[in-house]
């Protein structure tokens, strides 16, 4: 409630399984009950939007799809399946590990009817939204159907760096620019503002046309997703 009162309106929560044993394997801690309690606390707090994110890994998620969908739809939450990307800390990603969006849709259609596209044109949003019953489920096909040509996003990492793509090999530290006055002669505020603006503009100007997953010259970023944050 304090976060909502402070101005936070939308939150995303990772939920890859509803099986306690599987949760412990994935998260390496026995805290599924805390995650579920947090979801219900967010509902009670009245956030404008609550989205549950599920990592779509082949061989691991297929049997969970229907239960996760029902869990989200029953609580008026939007579930989003995100195709497994090469951002894992262990470096185990491979093309065959991706549970693609088409298979997810086929599984959903065995239990829900109709499952139909909700937005004819999603713009720069990463998720394709499907109407499922009285709610929505999103699928982010970042590997099998990249949307790089429509992407207009930057990411500010948890440690204050700008990344113009999750798969970028480079980033620019805004934190260092903000902290510069504490480590040397204090520059005028407008000089700091201009330096930050320049950093953002440069980051946008060197944004690549696509992430190039699946090509011979693709290199996964050195930082895994948990380290990038943002």
Would you kindly provide a written description of the structure presented here, covering whatever features stand out?
The chain is α/β, with parallel strands linked by helices. The chain is built from 8 helices and 9 strands. The strands form 2 sheets. Strands 1-2-3-6-5-4 form a 6-stranded mixed sheet, covered by helices on one side. Strand 2 (49-56), helix 4 (65-74) and strand 3 (78-83) form a beta-alpha-beta unit. The two termini are 21 Å apart. The mean pLDDT is 88.
Question: How are the secondary structure elements laid out?
Answer:
Elements: H1 2-5, E1 10-14, H2 20-27, H3 32-45, E2 49-56, H4 65-74, E3 78-83, H5 101-108, E4 115-117, E5 128-132, E6 135-140, E7 155-156, E8 161-163, E9 172-173, H6 174-179, H7 189-205, H8 225-228
Parallel strand pairs: 1-2, 2-3, 3-6
Antiparallel strand pairs: 4-5, 5-6, 7-8, 8-9
What sequence of helices (H) and strands (E) makes up the elements?
Answer: HEHHEHEHEEEEEEHHH
Mean pLDDT: 88
How big is the Rg?
A: 20 Å
Strand content: 15-25%
Gap from first CA to last CA = 21 Å
Instruction: Enumerate the spans where pLDDT stays under 50 for 5 or more consecutive residues.
Output: none
